[in-house]
Amino acid sequence: MKIVIVGGVAGGASAAARARRLSEDVSIVVFERGSDVSFANCGLPYHIGGNIPLRQSLIRKRAVRTVLTK
């Protein structure tokens, strides 16, 4: 089975995470127009304060293919 999600911010990321929890075998593709997909917003103050030097550390990848589009 394949699941295609359009929009990778809060709602899209939540849908992808839920789909993955329901089935580890499903193929999930998330299409996002922006440059970033959902990130750990609660960790942003730590990045700005220098405790988390790399912004990429706030982005978590899980067995979901993400396609960034313009």
Topology readout:
Layout (H helix, E strand, L loop, with lengths): L1 E5 L3 H13 L4 E6 L11 H5 L16 E4 L2
Protein name: CoA-disulfide reductase
InterPro entries: FAD/NAD-bd_sf (IPR036188)
Give the tags:
26% helix; 21% strand; 3-stranded parallel beta sheet; 70 residues; alpha/beta; single chain
Task: Describe the protein in words.
The longest helix is centred in the first third of the chain and has 13 residues, at 10-22. It is built from 2 helices and 3 strands, in the order E-H-E-H-E. The mean pLDDT is 81. Strands 1-2-3 form a 3-stranded parallel sheet, covered by helices on one side. The radius of gyration is 13 Å and the shape is elongated. It is α/β, with parallel strands linked by helices. It has one domain. This is CoA-disulfide reductase.
